[in-house]
Design brief:
Layout (H helix, E strand, L loop, with lengths): L4 H9 L3 H14 L1 H10 L9
Helix pairs in contact: 2-3
Length: about 50
């Protein structure tokens, strides 16, 4: 999150859909406050999972 939403999107674009899901689940578990910030800053984040 320190690098911005675009950096998160770029990272996720390099992963398979299963890897993206795993990263987001781990992110939510490990950093719930930052995950909530991502959801607030980019509510369309679920579209990145496709």
């Amino acid at each position: 999150m320190e690098c911005g939403v675009d950096a998160v999107k770029e990272l996720l674009s390099t992963l398979t859909s299963d890897e993206r899901l795993g990263v987001m689940l781990e992110f939510e578990y490990a950093c719930p406050d930052k995950f909530a910030q991502l959801v607030a800053d980019a509510p369309q984040w679920t579209e990145w999972m496709a």
